[in-house]
Every structure is written in structure tokens, then in C-alpha cells.
Write a structure and sequence with these properties.
This protein is of the alpha+beta class and 269 residues long. Helix content is 37%, strand content 20%. The protein is globular and about 50 Å long. GO terms for molecular function: aminoglycoside 3-N-acetyltransferase activity.
Length: 269
């Protein structure tokens, strides 16, 4: 959508103050630990863009709260596994040997949205060091959430998502239905296959290509899980600006999803 079209569809400019008011009306509070998935365009035209949005979140959460966003880097996964699109077979070894190692400071996120990418470079933000599924966090528990993100079982126990779960986090799906916390449910359910992942990291000051075990994550069941959870708990969409938004209890959703996945396992291939 062009900026002109976005302006035409926005009844009044969204501002730091109006977004903060919407967030409070939706149930976000000071001190909350929040895992945020977001679409800036879904909010409408925002005076100040992603910076104004993040300032609004900080106004509501305050420094006693914590804001967490996914800063994943699918472009740093093993090119031998790429499908959207695949690369020629004779490119694979070249990419494996040449792609720069993941760097929590320098490496941009991919397909995470401009709000998450803006927070990644925000003063005081910490980012976990996983080459594929890092998370960035601001606020009280930022260091606790992001430290020591192990390569293996990347979104399972002791991952940033699991630490948020242990802190009783909330999830906000702002203009999107992407929800990485359901990958934590996949890991905890033990119902999904395992796989071997690989990527470039820095170890002892040297770039190395490493392999590690992980779950074979899939989003196939996520829409039905979200719909079933919201129906059971009578959760309705709310508006942040123009963005249809869900505010969810992360532990409750994950526990529900673990049970759902065990009752409805992925069909064997």
C-alpha cells in the first residue's frame, strides 16, 4: 500500500498519545512483560512512524515492564533447506562458506516488520545471540530474557520465549496473526519431529559453520489453535489505531496449545 493510500484510509493521524491510550484500553499495563508481533501499516498513518509506536509502548509499560520482539533471520539458515525460493544447488556451498556470521548488533532481522527492526537498534535493547531465531528486548527483564540463547532446541526450554512464559508474559498480535509463542508450545508438546539446523556463528573469535538439533517447527496449525483459544476464553479483537489486535495471556495460550497439539498431532509424512 502506498503512503497516499494509507493516509486516505486513516480517519485521523495516529499519534504516540492516541496509540498509548488504545494500548491501555486494550488492557496493557505498567510492568507487563509483552511479546509483540506487529504491522505498522495496519495501525494506519502514524505521526512519527515506528518510533512513535515504540514510545507509546514504553509510555504504557514504563521501565518496570519489558517489551520483546522477534528479530529472526531466516536468510542465515542453511541454504540447502531453502524453499521460498530455493537457490541453485551449486550456490549452496558458496553461501555456507561466505555468509557472514550472525552478529546481534549488526545483523538485521528479516520479515519481522519495521517496528521490531526499529526496536532492535534502540538504546538499551538487548538481543539474543541465536543465528536464526533471535529476540530483542527492552526494559526490566531484557537481559534475563535474551542471555545465553542456546543453539539447540531454539524456541523450547530456556529460550527467550520460555523465559517470558515463566514471567507470566502477555502476547500482543497487532495487525497480524503471527505468534512465535506457539513454537514454544510445539517444543513443549514433544509432538513435532526433530531436525538438524545449521548456520554461521562466531566462536572464539572465528567464523564457523555449525550444526545443531532443533524441532521441525511449523505454523500450519496456528490459525486453528488461536481461533479455538479465543473462542474458549471469549477473547475478541480490539483496535490499536486501525489494527485488529489480540492481547493474550502467553502461559495460558501455550498451555492450551500444548494440549491441543497432543490431541491433534501433525500427520506423519
Amino acid at each position: 500500500m502506498s503512503e497516499a493510500a494509507l493516509i486516505a484510509e486513516t480517519p485521523t493521524p495516529r499519534t504516540r498519545a492516541s496509540i498509548a491510550e488504545d494500548l491501555r484500553n486494550a488492557g496493557l499495563q505498567a510492568g507487563d512483560v509483552l511479546v509483540l508481533h506487529s504491522s505498522l501499516k495496519a495501525i494506519g498513518w502514524v505521526s512519527g512512524g515506528p518510533v512513535a509506536v515504540l514510545l507509546a509502548f514504553q509510555d504504557v509499560l514504563t521501565e518496570t515492564g519489558t517489551l520483546i520482539v522477534p528479530t529472526h533471520t531466516s536468510n542465515l539458515t542453511d541454504p540447502a533447506d531453502w524453499q521460498n525460493p530455493p537457490v541453485p544447488a551449486d550456490w549452496v556451498s558458496i553461501i555456507q562458506e561466505s555468509v557472514p556470521a550472525f552478529d546481534p548488533v549488526r545483523t538485521p532481522s528479516r520479515h519481522m516488520g519495521i517496528i521490531a527492526e526499529t526496536l532492535r537498534t534502540w538504546p538499551g535493547v538487548r538481543r539474543s545471540a541465536h543465528p536464526h531465531v533471535s529476540f530483542a528486548a527492552w526494559g526490566r527483564y531484557a537481559e534475563q530474557i535474551t542471555e545465553d540463547h542456546q543453539l539447540a532446541w531454539s524456541m523450547g526450554e530456556n529460550s527467550p520465549l520460555h523465559r517470558a512464559y515463566q514471567l507470566g508474559a502477555k502476547i500482543m498480535l497487532l495487525g497480524t496473526r503471527n505468534c512465535t509463542s506457539l513454537h514454544l508450545a510445539e517444543a513443549l508438546s514433544r509432538t513435532v519431529p526433530t531436525t538438524t539446523s545449521a548456520g554461521a556463528v562466531t566462536q572464539r573469535g572465528r567464523r564457523v559453520w555449525v550444526s545443531f538439533p532443533d524441532w521441525e517447527y511449523s505454523t500450519d496449525k496456528f490459525p486453528e489453535i488461536l481461533d479455538a483459544f479465543c473462542a474458549q476464553h471469549h477473547i475478541e479483537n480490539q483496535l490499536i489505531g486501525s489494527a485488529s489486535t489480540l492481547l493474550l495471556d502467553q502461559p495460558a495460550l501455550v498451555d492450551f496449545a500444548v494440549k491441543y497439539l497432543r490431541q491433534n498431532p501433525r500427520p506423519a509424512e
